[in-house]
DNA sequence: CAGGGTAAGTAAAAAGATTGAACATACCAC
DNA sequence: GTGGTATGTTCAATCTTTTTACTTACCCTG
């Protein structure tokens, strides 16, 4: 994302006009079908101002007028919608399992998506392969005539908060990679904004941003895959991802759940990843790198050793969720990553522990909304695309 | 705090003017001695706009002109400073050990402070006692003629994020208390803004806000006392405290550090508080409620049992710090609370574990700034006062 | 089915904020 | 002392929002 707002905000009249236009656009995006009058009420602006702003946005092709709403006593309002046919967003992800590319509209509707399985490879080779996949997606007829707003790329590791640099991706074997530069060399003519983000942070952002019903005020995404990561997004006006000073926020795989426990590849002992992660399960159950971990385990569920390992991992996952819940208190939790495909053997212990303990503090009975994404293949890529849109609206509109 | 920013920001010309005035005021607050020209450059406004804004702020008594700076080739600029003599901020804290009240200037300079030791009591009785203490502080000659901007109150428990309601303070035995209402009944004529916040969140805010040298972009405050709490504050423009949907963010005392460990009073097992907290140390070492825990332990340091208990607690604290570091990646960490008075027997194991493991992920050698407050008696009260100022500037200026 | 009532959206004048350009001020170096 | 440079102020110009009509459009009532 990298929305620059270090300094204290001050602005001129142009800034104000942009601000108001962004507010209008964001409102219509979040609540499709709003009328000019609705917007004026909610934004505390006059009808005239909103009318003017809407006209510009219509002319620029961001909005379209929809049906006439039924009257509430007087002249009926005209519904406003995002123009979902003019633009396209691109999102991509490099994961341990392969490459994902998605093209979607402003409202997050998928136009086309591609996914290829691929073992981790060097950054430049990967960039070349990803560029090929991106080209294939762009050439799809669904994208015809649409204007590209940009490309977001998600990677499985911490990204510098102020520049598009991947610090480290242990499961890819990458370190200090300027991945967008490599990609730019392959796709010199691809326009729009480009940005790089961590996989879980992008996913978290997308899950919150592409929501038309009640948007939660904050959302935690936990990605359980080869490694464990998370992203927290929240904060009223423009959703903002917590990144931390070095982009390490959310690297929960190395929070300690078991002091003095097993050694982790990071060198410390008892990290969450030693208890619940793809690599820990492989190590514990002897699944080789050439096999698909989830498929293999799903076929070995009746082995007591496997069942027990998944149960233990599930409990650790539940503990991890509980700790995050107490540390961040998000309005909603979404659980994704390849390990969710393991289903109840892993998830039931996790959810049981979490639901049993989440309300210890206040003694309430309200359950925290927790959603599990069964197939999160394109979640991060979609989130990266969402970030492109948010950035564009913030800067342009 | 409760800065209302749920809706998408939009604004009129008044809003813009206020925004720019706030920006000017905040800049001068953070960097005393700035000239109008400096501000114009940094805020990307014209000299004329800044000049106008500064004049209003001078007339309103927020700013004062200072010395003439030395010329950099042309006419020397006039230094601007916060007017530290016109206003006063009040901060108060109800802790397990007693009551604290502080009066300070806009720059955070203490004018007067009072502290009385007191065992936990019922909310209304406590409000009465606190009101008495506040009256004493107000009557102090140092506060003569100063205009009161408001009162911030810090309590040791989660506060509702949208209204001044204390949900629960286990160590005071309070639940669902509208403490400001109780206090208002005792102090009907005390003017300005009143606000309520969690003790650790207020402390975190104050530690970041009342800083004139390089302000870190985010700060984590960990409060180790009878219970364990924390507050994280960050985010460029206006520092914002992470509160969570139910105000539970930062309630790290009940993150699980030892699955299957000791039972906690919350009902769960292995919570951080069972390993490092005032009440856990009392329970483990048989220190009665009538004794001061820290004083008692400082006299019993040579007992192997005590030394070992402090070492274990310290290691748990280190683990807690490490987990927070990996979850939130704050630019700076501040450790406070009554337990810091225990000194090296507790803190050395904590710091050793933290420094040894904080850079496992990236393999860097940079140490995260970590400051320990030896005497944090007034830290939370001061922070609550800081929140009053931030709120006032945000709304008024 | 005509007419009043109500609310949505638009147009033009008025109000208000920032900018731009010119000007006054103040120090320094030669 | 004079020229140079940068700070800070003044005032007309510019731009954006508001204010105040006014038009449009539907519903309900008689």
Report on the structure:
- Chains A, B: GO terms for molecular function: kinase activity.
- Two copies of one chain form a homodimer.
- The first copy, chain A, has 397 residues and is α/β, with parallel strands linked by helices.
- Chain A has three domains: 5-82, Winged helix-like DNA-binding domain superfamily/Winged helix DNA-binding domain (Arc Repressor Mutant, subunit A, Orthogonal Bundle), CATH 1.10.10.10; 87-204 and 380-393, ATPase, nucleotide binding domain (Nucleotidyltransferase, domain 5), CATH 3.30.420.40; 210-376, ATPase, nucleotide binding domain (Nucleotidyltransferase, domain 5, 2-Layer Sandwich).
- Helices cover 38% and strands 20% of the residues of chain A.
- Chain A contains twelve helices and 14 strands.
- A five-stranded mixed sheet of chain A has the order 5-4-3-6-9, with helices on both faces. A five-stranded mixed sheet of chain A has the order 12-11-10-13-14, with helices on one face.
- Chains A and B meet through helix 1 and helix 10 of A and helix 1 and helix 10 of B.
- Chain B binds a DNA duplex (30 and 30 nucleotides) through helix 1 and helix 3.
Summarize the structure.
2 copies of one chain form a homodimer. Chain A is an alpha/beta fold and 397 residues long. In chain A, 38% of the residues lie in helices and 20% in strands.
């Amino acid at each position: 994302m990298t929305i620059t707002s270090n300094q204290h905000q001050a602005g001129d009249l142009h800034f104000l006009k942009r601000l108001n236009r962004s507010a209008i656009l964001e409102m219509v995006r979040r609540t499709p079908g709003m009328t000019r009058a609705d917007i004026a009420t909610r934004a505390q602006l006059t009808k005239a101002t909103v009318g003017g702003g809407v006209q510009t946005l219509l002319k620029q092709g961001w909005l379209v007028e929809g049906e006439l709403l039924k009257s509430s006593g007087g002249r009926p309002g005209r519904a406003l919608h995002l123009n979902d046919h003019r633009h396209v967003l691109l999102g991509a992800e490099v994961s341990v399992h392969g490459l994902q590319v998605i093209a979607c509209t402003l409202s997050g509707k998928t136009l086309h998506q591609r996914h290829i399985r691929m073992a981790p490879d060097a950054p430049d080779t990967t960039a070349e392969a990803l560029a090929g996949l991106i080209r294939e997606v762009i050439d799809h007829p669904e994208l015809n005539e649409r204007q590209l707003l940009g490309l977001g790329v998600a990677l499985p590791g911490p990204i510098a908060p102020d520049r598009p640099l991947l610090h480290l991706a242990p499961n890819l074997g990458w370190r200090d990679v300027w991945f967008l530069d490599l990609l730019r060399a392959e796709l010199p003519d691809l326009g729009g904004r480009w940005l790089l983000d961590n996989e879980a942070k992008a996913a978290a952002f997308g899950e919150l941003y592409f929501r038309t019903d009640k948007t939660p005020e904050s959302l935690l995404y936990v990605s359980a895959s080869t490694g464990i990561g998370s992203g927290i997004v929240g904060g009223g006006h423009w959703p903002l991802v917590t990144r931390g000073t070095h982009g390490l926020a959310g690297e929960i795989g190395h929070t300690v759940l078991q002091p003095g426990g097993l050694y982790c590849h990071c060198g410390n002992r008892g990290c969450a990843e030693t208890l619940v992660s793809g690599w820990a399960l492989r190590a514990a159950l002897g699944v080789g790198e050439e096999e698909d971990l989830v498929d293999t385990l799903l076929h070995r569920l009746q082995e007591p050793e496997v069942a027990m390992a998944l149960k233990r991992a599930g409990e650790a996952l539940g503990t991890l969720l509980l700790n995050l819940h107490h540390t961040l208190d998000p309005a909603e939790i979404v659980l994704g990553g390849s390990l969710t495909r393991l289903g109840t053997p892993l998830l039931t212990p996790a959810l049981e522990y979490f639901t049993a303990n989440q309300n210890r503090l206040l003694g309430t009975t309200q359950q925290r909304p927790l959603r599990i994404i069964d197939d999160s293949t394109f979640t991060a890529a979609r989130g990266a695309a969402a970030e492109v849109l948010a950035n564009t609206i913030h800067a342009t509109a």
